[in-house]
Amino acid sequence: MKKRILAAILALAMTASLAACGGGTTPTTAAPATTTAKPADTTTAKPADTTTAKPADTTTAAADTTAVPAPAGTVQGVTDDTIYVGNTAATSGAFAAVGVPFNAGMEAVFKAYNDAGGFNGKKIELKHYDDGFDAAQGLTYTKTLVEDDKVFALVGHFGTNTVGATLDYIKSVGIPMMYAATGISELYQEGATGKNACVFPVQPIYNAEGRVLLARALASETDGAGLGGKKIGVIATTDDAGAGLLAGVKRQAEEGSFDIVYQEVDPSATEYSTALTVLKNSGCDVVIACMNQAPFQTAMVSMRDINYNAKVITSYVSASATFLNELVENGSVTEERPVYATAWLDVTTEQGYAEMMEFATVQMAWEAANGIEAANTYATNSYAMAGYVAAKLFVHGLEQLKAKNQELTWENYIAVCEEVPFHIPMGGDINYAKGDRLGVTSLALNTISLTVNETTGIRDLVEVSGIMSLDEVWGKR
Question: What is the DSSP annotation of 101-170?
């Protein structure tokens, strides 16, 4: 019964992220892939505007690394009654359907936290600029937030363009940045030290997810832990997504001796028959597809055309029931050629379901306070859910400082975030200990059903395995 109820609740939301499909036309933003996923709802009304005035400066996107180093014990954006945090996000134009609900999810968390007393009586206030998903604007506004508005932290730093253009600047300053709404490889750090440690990515990073993909490919099929692969084929596009996922596969392969065949392909190619024939003739029984949606579709069609039957596993960015349904319809996905994809949120568990209900309650309370009608709720919107996660994790860091009775400084906040794992609402845990900035590596595993759901008219994503940490999966080889 719960899964049927859940499917109804998620009918408008909970799909894979807006994946970078090339050309800079689609943002790699934060909508989380989940179990029992459905297409994301982007039809809701825009909430009350929280955008501050735009500064006049529109400097280029080259990151400025000449910022004056912050002194030890840095405190800014903290007054007797307020903690100022900031982000830039596209809240107008083509990507407003992503940025508006994302910020709404953040605002909902901050309202609930403030209503409960905040941080020792201090309330959180979000300062926001609309960068239109433009890297140059994103850099300008990020500098404005840090240098002019003097926010304490960047929370929900939004989108591939802005994140990529500002990472060097953020690290040069050392300001805490919690949750980047992208999975670009530049975020991945093992053992970050000094000011590099100020960045706290959450959603999957390509490099880290590549490690999980290899672990799942090799792990035993017992309890759905993995695909039981004996010889692994890897096909990777040469763009950022493919290169990052491939780097992760190779990094994890350093942990043992495995039979792996690698092929790299052009992301814009119209077929991959030659590369996949190499994997087929090599006897690879599991194929890891290191690529985004468009080339993944090309790869699956090519496997169909050369009659290559093997299990296929790919990134959460392709974990869309709508997208995978098309591959079943055209004969690319079959019983002999099943497709699996990761997911970083799972609301099919008792805990995950309860946390989703908490999100919906908090979201609707904020909407009611802002005059948004119930018919236009973001309570089933995956981008609002991502913003909610970003804000909840920032607040979690504050609560750890409060428990330790420590002063709210950049250095103390960064240090406390490394001390204990964070629980991701509706997801697993993430650990920043020893400077690791890998993004979440505790992922679930889904597949696409070959049977049409009579209610929805499409095939559902079906959970194969709940969320498991990378170490857990790796131990099941």
Answer: HHHHHHHHHHHHHHHTTTBTTBEEEEEEEE-TT-HHHHHHHHHIIIIIS--SEEEEEE-HHHHHHHHHHH
